[in-house]
Amino acid sequence: MKKYFIFTLLTILLSACATKQTQTTPHKPSVQFDTIQEIVYQCDSQNNSQKILVTYAIAESEIVAAQIRTRNKTTPILIRNKNITKNNTFIGGDNNRFTWITESANHNNLIRTRANMLTEKTNDTINGKNTVVDKVLFKHCVIDKKATNKINPQSNNSKKKTLKNQSKSAGKLP
Q1: Does a structural domain hold residue 128?
Q2: Is 174 contained in some domain?
Q3: Which tens digit of pLDDT belongs to each residue from 119-133?
Q4: Which of 59, 117, 121, 165 gives a 20 to 30 Å CA spacing to 46?
């Protein structure tokens, strides 16, 4: 534990010396978008099946970000990695802690697209060594069409909006 703390402290000190950045808080992204699409998924989790709500931000007909809300938590904004084309991969949080992966989709077919999983980077001890692993929080996510239709209005306002990180859950899932 002492070695890990000393290594972390040295890394912080060296990185502070190497950059002229004066900001002490991590950057919290905001995303410009034209419209949003909210989808309720039924997913497998470690102990049971659970509903999650995903808000997708769409700019100029392109999905640019996602934010996932469970019963008691909301992820930071996850930005779509456009370099990955075989699926839609959204990454975000401190040190890119969260990853949300769906089948390849665009704004026209998003409402019919399955999601693969939400993972979170965590520390785990493997063979006696502290290792960063991707813990699967939710997997095999299928759209709950009834709940999704209930929360989506028929028309979207086309004014520019900004998706910002939320520190608390915005309410109960349908």
Answers
A1: yes
A2: no
A3: 999 998 889 999 999
A4: 165
| Residue 153 neighbours by CB under 8 Å, 6+ apart | none
User: Does residue 73 form part of some domain?
Assistant: yes
Counting the structural domains of the chain, the total is: 1
Average the pLDDT over 90-115 and give the result.
Answer: 92
Give residue 160's identity as a one-letter amino acid code: K
CB 79 within 8 A of CB 92: yes
CA distance 97 to 131: 14
Range of the domain at 58: 28-159
Q: Are 147 and 50 in contact (CB under 8 A)?
A: no
**Is residue 127 left, alpha or beta, with left meaning phi > 0 and alpha meaning psi from -120 to 50?**
left
Residue 88 lies in a domain: yes
d(CA 158, CA 168): 26
Note the pLDDT of residue 164: 60
| Interval 11-37: pLDDT, tens | 333 333 333 333 334 456 678 889 999
| Percent residues over pLDDT 90 in the chain | 55
Record the pTM: 0.72
